Amino acid sequence: MSKKGGKQTETGREVHVPCKRAKVEASCPSSPMNYDSPDSVFESLIFPIEQEKFFKEYWEQKPLLIQRDDPSVAAYYQSLFQLMDLKELSSQGLYYGRDVNICRCMNGKKKVLNKDGKVNYMQLKRDFDQKKATIQFHQPQRFKDELWRIQEKLECYFGSLVGSNVYITPPGSQGLPPHYDDVEVFILQLEGEKHWRLYKPTVHLAREYNVESEDHIGNPTHEFILKPGDLLYFPRGTIHQADTPLGGSYSTHVTISTYQNNSWGDFLLDAIPGLVFDTAKENVDLRTSIPRQLLMQVDIADSTRRLSSFLRSLADRLENTKELRSSDMKKDFIMNRLPPFLGNSSDPLAPGGKLPKLDSKIRLRFKDHAIITVEPDQDNSEELRKEMVYVYHSLKNRRERHMMGNEDDDTSEEGISETHGLRFPLSHMDALKQIWRSATVAIKELSLKSDAEKENLVLSLWAECLIEVI
């Protein structure tokens, strides 16, 4: 594949800075990451760009390149993942396709060079050295604690799933053809150097992955070399390709991605059905039958006018609605996200503090890892099911399954991922909101009729490790 070199094109926003230091982790070199909060993690990731400036000028708009000349940051980035890590990980049972892809860009197309079954490190290294193949390692946060720690905090920050992939490319080679993705991308250069070219999107904020022919994408809008410690961000839809320069070392980078299927359009698709269902209970017009043979007609112009009227009435109702049902998106996020990072401890979570009593004060333990939804009673098979409050959480999610899809050991008999949480009567909603919105709350002040209800509620939350007594 031809490599477009020549003169250096516009680099957009380019920042050359030493990265500030924050926490020092025992398990890695001096760390530039500040783990005090999700906000501080993202702030240290994009330093020196301020969060407000980033979201105002770059997010979903244009690429951002941050080049850092700081050996300590480069050393920290290298500790996140290295080629040599694959030797040990291969011995743990990696599989082609599921965990590792071997590929190379040839004549503008991606050629997959996977073997069958388990990954053998020596064979993997031979393909890397002799076939100049790129190694793509899926979701390294399943194995690398520091990436787990970063991505778990970023999931709290964005309120969206955050995945990652590692790409290791030998010198003089390219793994993937020009393409664009359906995710917001943050690239951290870990080892070696990578030559990047970015192009004007053909589909802004794309909803799907697509390969683009180099003949149709024009000249790069940005062209640069990423070095260890550098960070690159670009929005979904940005056409890009990258190769490892000939004559140097191999390149390793990790791509951290988020906001897949997390647009206003997705939220509307999720929320509108519940809104229609609730409105139809009160509006008889929505309960009237559609015209005879409507589903058999080609021209439905008359019906679209009626639908427009219904949509306007839904919009009016929405203006006065304080809560929307977005159960599917919420549940998908909470069921599939990373569990909290608990340091080096491999012990399971245990209830915090002493057993709660009526005169106790409590506080939420993992607010970012729990959601409250209102849904029909899932344990009631009757046709008319009453609504219940469900509290779902990710405290028992399995790190090793993060972003890997559903497999047999993770699904129920119906093929649905297992959820972790609790179910309460609808009358408990106000009390739950008190707990979620308050820094601390006295159990006896909860908005429930009886002391027994108050104690039963907090005991259930406490046993599930969602609250602690203070």
TrEMBL record:
Catalytic activity: L-histidyl-[protein] + 2-oxoglutarate + O2 = (3S)-3-hydroxy-L-histidyl-[protein] + succinate + CO2; L-histidyl-[ribosomal protein uL15] + 2-oxoglutarate + O2 = (3S)-3-hydroxy-L-histidyl-[ribosomal protein uL15] + succinate + CO2
This enzyme's EC code(s): 1.14.11.-
Single GO BP term: ribosome biogenesis
Main location: nucleus
UniProt entry keywords in alphabetical sequence: Dioxygenase, Iron, Metal-binding, Nucleus, Oxidoreductase, Phosphoprotein, Ribosome biogenesis, Transcription, Transcription regulation
Localization, UniProt: Nucleus, Nucleolus
Pfam families according to UniProt: JmjC_2, WHD_ROXA
Cofactor binding summary note: Binds 1 Fe(2+) ion per subunit.
UniProt family annotation: Belongs to the ROX family. MINA53 subfamily.
PANTHER family tied to this protein: MINA53 MYC INDUCED NUCLEAR ANTIGEN, RIBOSOMAL OXYGENASE 2
Protein name from the UniProt record: Bifunctional lysine-specific demethylase and histidyl-hydroxylase
